[in-house]
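Input record (one chain):
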Amino acid sequence: MNTTMMQNFHNQKELLSKRQNKITDIVKEKGFAPIDDLAKHFDVTPQTIRRDINKLCDLGILTRYHGGAGISSSVQNLDYSARKSMLPQEKQRIANAAAAEIPDGASIFINIGTTTEEAAIALSSLKGLKVITNNLNVAMILSSNDTCEVIVAGGMVRHRDKGITGEATVDFIRQFRVDYGIIGVSGIDEDGTLLDYDYHEVRVAREIISNSREIFLLADHTKFERNAMVRIGTLEDVNYLVTDKKPDKKFRDLIDQYGVKLIIADGKKQ
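The corresponding structure, as predicted from the sequence alone:
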């Protein structure tokens, strides 16, 4: 952070109440903090915390997410536990909508991510699936279905989220050609570029895209216009985009341009 940015940050801190400064410290330490947890911590109402968060977000100190506040960064993602607690109902609806498009007996890649883990739960009721994954959480979920064959990629296991990455993982994925690839991303830029944070994870996602007949991109509404520094591909690489809210027109125009099937899992009857 340069000198001007540091000065601006300190000037902003002086405009905040003691509680708002403490909220900032908590969120910066944890990466994400739910409103209800902050309300209990400070013994105030959720409405009070929402007003604090609104001010902090308006100043550009924090980023507002459904149910809480987090740090917005193009170089570092929220930690796994924070991402797991965000938008659980929306992720579940997205996962169920994607699973409804996949038949029994399909072959599937599933990559790393909290939404793809929800997809594994939704898919666990199907029969005869053959699933290749670099996510140990996905493997554990689907291994409970005795009609499902689960193949786990080799490579280095990350402690933080049980994801598997590395050169061996990329080589392993290249050996297969499957019906469907189910992927998540950290961000979708306004030009349709799909983004993530970890170069090693992105290499695996690219191989999944290259070796799947059809790609399902699972992305909740917070992923649109969210920054991350590593390019996976573009919306043109996707066959289905499953999200929980209708995207802005500029994204819908791109979706139409590339012939992507848009599925809105908003919980409303169609």
